[in-house]
Amino acid sequence: MMPSTTKADEWIAHDLKTLPESFEPIWTGAKRFEITQVQVSVGERIALSEWDPKAGYTGRVVYVRVTHVDAGAIQSGVIVFGFRFDGKPSRERRKTE
Question: Which residue among 6, 25, 35, 54 is least packed, with the fewest CB closer than 10 Å?
Answer without folding.
Answer: 54
